[in-house]
Write the structure tokens for this entry.
Amino acid sequence: MTVRIEIRDLDLDQTLGCGQTFRWRRDQSGRWRGPIGDCVVTLWKEGGALIADSEPHRGDLEERVSTYLRAGDDISVIQASISRDDVLARGLAGLKGLRLVKMDEWECTLSYVLATYANIPRIKKMIERVSSTYGDAIDPEFHSFPTLERMRGASVRDLGRCGLGYRARHVHRLCRSLDDADMASMREMGYDELRESLLRLPGVGDKVADCIALFGFGRLESFPIDVWIARALARLYGVRGTYPRLRGFASDRFGEYAGYAQEYIYFNERVFAGQGACLFTPRDGSSDRTP
DNA sequence: GCCCAGGAGTGTG
DNA sequence: CACACTCATGGG
């Protein structure tokens, strides 16, 4: 059973492969497969339209996929807003298919706590091992992402066996300092209050809080700054410094859709800059040749 | 072997 | 507030 979903700007390879989310797998034919909640979804494009398939069939498949891929975001409007920045403006045409995703809040929280100081292949491995240990088998290849309640019973030792390293201790404390009611109340908070709440959680600092606010709670004004973004901001704008300083710079410059700007910069820095094919060019006089 | 990773926590000046 | 150090480990 498949559904056809109208969504104007979408590149599955960019969106699901860029490193904002960690569980999707691409097969040889270019179809993407991954869990959304308790069902495994297969996505591909046919004649410009998005096709989604779930096994077993879920009646709300279209809604799940539309929410996950933020189908309501009008990329033209967002890019027009970001284009007020002359540095990004010229490179955005090649990124119209790169969308932010809307992950489950808890999945996003744990995923980005695990994502500290590790590379993406390792982050994927940690998440799969945690899922296969504490989640339910929902498919021959996939386990559901473990619930917060289920994770609360995990010992530091067992978490360590998932290859988490020093993160096992953070995760252990995280699960004990949070419940579903907390996640629900955070959905109702304004951005600043949400950010402060997230920062009180074990293993959550500035960068992770912004990732959770963006990819989990859908706060598009959020601008996570990791080593790649810091590098890009130095190269493109000649700005560097502490996290609050860079965050303020991004907020002033990119505004209400700073999160999309962040994803564009991140993608450019990770995928294109390494190949000497940057979409974005520095402002005159702000180039940084000694990063 | 070496370097680095979508950093956070803690202590110090 | 800003910086320095440590944390545990695997991928390239």
